[in-house]
Design goal:
11 helices, about 0% strand, Heme Oxygenase, Chain A, mainly alpha
């Protein structure tokens, strides 16, 4: 999979239509600091905790998607994505433990407003719309993370040696993850052809761009935690 594939078909047009919002998401300061290895640990810990809570609702969204599909191959494709998320959750907890976060720390943490806004928006789209609407809300996360991971891995400025976030970067450029993304993009394009995606472009673009904006807000939520932690350390050292 190469970065050029993200320009293709309806997905590519939606991505282009998102314009500056897409750039703000995939090039967010949070992402840039991940690449440089300079992201405050508190920012990453906050992100990891909320990402686990996010994934729980993302799994619910994929379960809802399965119920909105009409053929067995489509249902299998969505179920594969659902199973991948459910299987990832224990691995996510193991990774969090490496950052000093226990399972109780994570599951007992309150959802941040940014997590609530994003996950409930996706679920609302899923309940009020059809499978194509829901996929349009899901794709900025699914394919966006692949674009970020590949972009960072292919960027010579990305620091991989002694970067505490190198494993995270490699995960989203991993072949198995990218294969799942390709399958999701294929499903999205197939459903778009069946359900009049071109005639619904403006409505789908609004959903896609809104989800993209909520992705940026999710990064900023993590970054804000790091900035707050640094401010407290600075104040205490005076």
């Amino acid at each position: 999979m190469s970065l050029s594939m993200f320009n293709d078909c309806l997905y590519g047009r939606l991505r282009q239509q998102a314009g500056q919002h897409w750039h703000d998401y995939v090039s967010h300061t949070f992402v840039q600091q991940l690449a440089a290895g300079t992201l405050p640990h508190a920012a990453f810990q906050r992100y990891l905790t909320q990402d686990y809570l996010f994934l729980l609702h993302f799994a619910r969204a994929y379960a809802l998607l399965v119920s909105k599909l009409h053929t067995l191959p489509e249902m299998r494709a969505a179920t594969t994505s659902l199973n991948a998320i459910v299987s990832e959750l224990p691995l996510h907890l193991t990774y969090c433990a490496q950052w000093g976060l226990s399972e109780s720390d994570i599951v007992n943490d309150a959802e941040a407003p940014e997590t609530l806004n994003y996950t409930r928006y996706v679920l609302d789209i899923g309940h009020s719309g059809d499978a194509l609407d829901l996929l349009a809300a899901l794709m900025p996360c699914v394919a966006g993370y692949a674009e970020i991971g590949l972009g960072l891995l292919n960027n010579p400025a990305t620091v991989m040696r002694n970067n505490p976030y190198a494993a995270w970067i490699q995960n989203y450029g991993d072949e198995s993850y990218l294969a799942g993304v390709q399958a999701s993009l294929t499903l999205f394009e197939n459903i778009a052809r069946q359900r009049g995606g071109e005639s619904r472009f403006d409505a789908l673009a609004n959903i896609f761009t809104t989800a993209t904006r909520l992705e940026s807000a999710f990064w900023q939520m993590g970054l804000n935690a790091g900035n707050t932690s640094n401010a407290l350390i600075s104040a205490c050292s005076r």
